[in-house]
Every structure is written in structure tokens, then in C-alpha cells.
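Holo model, nickel (II) ion. Inputs:
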Amino acid sequence: MSILKVAQLGNPVLRTKAEPVLRDIIHSEEIQGLIDDMIDTMREYNGAGLAAPQVHESVQIIVLEAENNPRYKDDPDVPLTIVINPKIVSFSEEMEEGWEGCLSLNDLWGLVNRAVKITVTGFDRNGDPLTIEAEGFFARALQHEIDHLHAKVFIDRMTDLTSLSFGKEYQRYHREYDEDEEE
Ligand code: NI
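Output:
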């Protein structure tokens, strides 16, 4: 297992639509190794999720996890989730704004409007069909990662750029007050 380099905004791989993974190669060492490396990379950089194009692989794989994550400490936990060829099959009409950051837009944060509830289908890492009903932060994280597979990043979804903030200012002015946080 290894920690991979994360492509930064401007790298064409982030603006290329990712290819679906053929179901019969999901068990291959190449795909399984990539998934393990994506999980390691996400954890190393405290991401709440990672899409394969972010590690220079233009294939439809996303991983998500958020447990005691310092980058998302105001948000609820997300269990380790791996989805291959994810598709959002339903969106709630209800939308809500929330803060997003991205390991490929290092240090930038912004408010993005997303569906509150979604249903995602795809395959798990064993190649078995998967359906996820997600809500709130989990639904937001899934929408963010699936966007990467369609060559989109979160700033493309911002309808108003006035919230766009660098990390330090985001923490200082916009993150909910946390009494455990040191100044
Ligand atoms: Ni991202």
C-alpha cells in the first residue's frame, strides 16, 4: 500500500470524465491495489473522500470516510465507503448549503448547495451491486466525489463565490466554534 500524489486544480486529469470499471476486473490486483492506495491517501491527508481521478487514474472509483476528521470536525461521521461506477439515481428536491473543501483545491473552502438526500447505486469492492441511501453530510460527500468522476470540482457548483475562503480564514470566520480547538 502506498500514499499517492494528489492532482491539483489545473491538472487535466481533473477535467477528464472517468471511465467505468469493467465488472470482471474489479477483483484484479490493479483495481484492489488502487482502492487500498486511495484509502491510505485519503487518510494521510485527512480527506473525507477521494475520487480516482484525483490520484491520476481516470476510472470511476470513489472512497469516503470521516471519523474524527480534523478537516471536517463539525460534521457527522461517515463510515468507510467504497463505490465503483457510482450513479446517483435519485435526488431530494430539498437542498441545503454546506462548506466543502477538496484535496485537489488545496486550502480553498466554499459554500455549495446540494441535495439533502440522494440514492446511489454502484458496485462494492467485491463486485457486488450496492445501493446507498444517504442524507446530510454523507450525501454531500458522495455528490462531491461523484462530481469528480464527471470532471467537475466543487467551485463549479458554487452559485455565489463570495464565500470562497482560504483555510485559515475559513477556520477563523466560518467554522463553528469548537472549544477544544487551540488558537
Ligand atoms: Ni474533491
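The beta strands are 49-51, 61-66, 78-91, 95-101, 108-115, 117-123, 129-135, 165-166. Residues 12-174 form a domain with the Peptide Deformylase fold (CATH 3.90.45.10).
Archived with the compound record.
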